[in-house]
């Protein structure tokens, strides 16, 4: 189980680095990378996950264009070396840590391929440590850093080439690790209560980036809220610390959401935001385009994270976004490419939403009822 990193003094347990520090079946390490055209014409996202105690690695590349979303998936046996960040034709390359990454899907039988390059705009920022329990049983214990950047490169689909032009596609990525539900559903007692809603908005502005994310319990109580204002500086650092000059902590205070009739899909949002310096901010976002997180395996019945599909399996899925069933539980975790406004600035970004259950603060009273 030795790997080349064991030659460095990095071990956090008495075992080699390839051996997880926990026996929890849901141990994981994951890359997620998202990009969106400034005009909202294209959303492209990719992911790679390693689940060492399940012996599985998987990855996806998906893009939404002209109302159609295409998704490439790969799943396979996890190699012993944790630095092998690929599966089948898909790989994530750490070209320069915290600065430049490359996401590649080599040509394969699905007809989808890609060669995408990500460059940081600000240093990586560590979010708050997240712990969630369900009736006393810990189901999430994870760390995550986020980083804003820009994209360029190409996507290929059925012989057609899509170019991501420098400066036109911006985005955000995260790197997370720890424990969270993956693989087959656990046995034992069902969940103790209705799930929390999740809202997250990482946004680019001309001279700064902002993030705001939080959970809400049914009824509206906010918990595990965090957000940041990160100035864009030259040169770009590897890491943004919470106490760096110009960095401000942001706090969610509430929201006003509008939804498409018959659905839970947000069509407009205003977030009331406070900051450590006592200022109040009104952050407004307006969706331009939609992206199903099912395209990266989230809530995907066939390509869910950590599911064993054999030593190597690849596949492709296609959806028309205007034909989605609003009551489909696998279509509730979505991303929107959005226009954003705050403090007289205009920008672009992403809005993530997951809303299950009777969230009366939004006007929902059942598991998946829609807006009037």
Helix/strand layout:
Elements: E1 27-37, E2 42-51, E3 56-65, E4 68-77, E5 86-87, E6 90-96, E7 100-105, E8 112-120, E9 125-126, E10 130-134, E11 137-157, E12 160-179, E13 197-204, E14 208-216, E15 222-231, E16 248-259, E17 266-275, E18 280-292, E19 312-320, E20 334-342, E21 345-354
Antiparallel strand pairs: 1-2, 1-12, 2-3, 3-4, 4-19, 5-6, 6-7, 7-8, 8-11, 9-11, 10-11, 11-12, 13-14, 13-21, 14-15, 15-16, 16-17, 17-18, 18-20, 20-21
Commentary on this structure:
By secondary structure, the chain is mainly beta. It has one domain: AttH-like domain (AttH-like fold, Beta Barrel), CATH 2.40.370. The chain contains no helices and 21 strands. The chain has strands at 27-37, 42-51, 56-65, 68-77, 86-87, 90-96, 100-105, 112-120, 125-126, 130-134, 137-157, 160-179, 197-204, 208-216, 222-231, 248-259, 266-275, 280-292, 312-320, 334-342, 345-354. The strands form two sheets. Strands 1, 2, 3, 4, 5, 6, 7, 8, 9, 10, 11, 12 and 19 form a 13-stranded antiparallel sheet that branches. The chain starts with 26 loop residues before the first strand and ends in an 18-residue tail after the last strand. The model has no long low-confidence stretch (mean pLDDT 95).
Q: Strand count, sense and closure of the main sheet?
A: 13 strands, antiparallel
Briefly note the CATH topology name.
AttH-like fold
Q: Could you state the order of secondary-structure elements as H and E?
A: EEEEEEEEEEEEEEEEEEEEE
> Portion of residues in helices?
under 10%
User: Which CATH architecture would you pick?
Assistant: Beta Barrel
* Backbone shape: globular
Number of E-type strands: 21
Q: Identify low-pLDDT runs.
A: none
Strand content: over 45%
State the helix count. 0
**How far apart lie the N and C ends?**
56 Å
Q: Whole-number radius of gyration?
A: 20 Å
The class by helix and strand makeup works out as mainly beta
Number of structurally distinct domains:
1
> What is the CATH class?
Mainly Beta
Mean pLDDT: 95
Question: CATH homologous superfamily?
Answer: AttH-like domain
């Amino acid at each position: 189980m030795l790997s080349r990193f064991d030659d460095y003094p990095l071990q956090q347990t008495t075992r080699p680095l390839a051996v997880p520090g926990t026996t929890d079946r849901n141990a994981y390490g994951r890359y997620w990378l998202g990009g969106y055209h400034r005009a909202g014409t294209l959303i492209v996202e990719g992911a790679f996950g390693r689940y060492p105690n399940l012996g599985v690695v998987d990855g996806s590349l998906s893009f939404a264009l002209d109302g159609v979303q295409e998704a490439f998936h790969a799943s396979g046996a996890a190699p012993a070396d944790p630095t092998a960040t690929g599966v089948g034709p898909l790989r994530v390359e750490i070209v320069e840590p915290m600065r430049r990454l490359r996401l590649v899907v080599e040509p394969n039988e699905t007809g989808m391929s890609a060669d995408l390059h990500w460059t940081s705009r600000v240093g990586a920022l560590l979010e708050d440590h997240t712990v969630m329990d369900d009736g006393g049983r810990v189901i999430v214990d994870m760390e995550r850093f986020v980083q804003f950047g820009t994209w360029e490169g190409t996507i290929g689909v059925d012989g057609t080439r899509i170019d991501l032009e420098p400066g036109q596609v911006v985005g955000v990525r995260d790197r997370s690790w720890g424990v969270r539900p993956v693989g087959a559903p656990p046995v034992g007692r069902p969940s103790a209560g209705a799930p929390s809603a999740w809202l997250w908005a990482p946004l680019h502005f001309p001279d700064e980036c902002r993030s705001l994310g939080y959970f809400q319990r049914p009824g509206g109580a906010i918990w595990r809220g965090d957000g940041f204002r990160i100035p864009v500086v030259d040169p770009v650092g590897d890491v943004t610390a919470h106490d760096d000059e110009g960095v401000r902590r942001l706090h969610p205070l509430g929201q006003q959401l509008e939804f498409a009739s018959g659905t839970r899909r947000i069509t407009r949002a205003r977030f009331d935001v406070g900051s450590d310096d006592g200022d109040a901010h009104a952050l407004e976002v307006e969706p331009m385009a939609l992206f199903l997180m099912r395209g990266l395996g989230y809530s995907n019945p066939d390509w869910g994270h950590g599911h064993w599909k054999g030593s190597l399996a690849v596949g492709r899925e296609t959806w028309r976004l205007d034909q989605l069933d609003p009551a489909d539980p696998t279509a509730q975790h979505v991303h929107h490419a959005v226009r954003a406004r705050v403090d007289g600035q205009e920008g672009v970004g992403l809005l993530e939403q997951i809303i299950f259950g009777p969230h009366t603060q939004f006007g929902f009273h059942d598991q998946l009822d829609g807006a009037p």
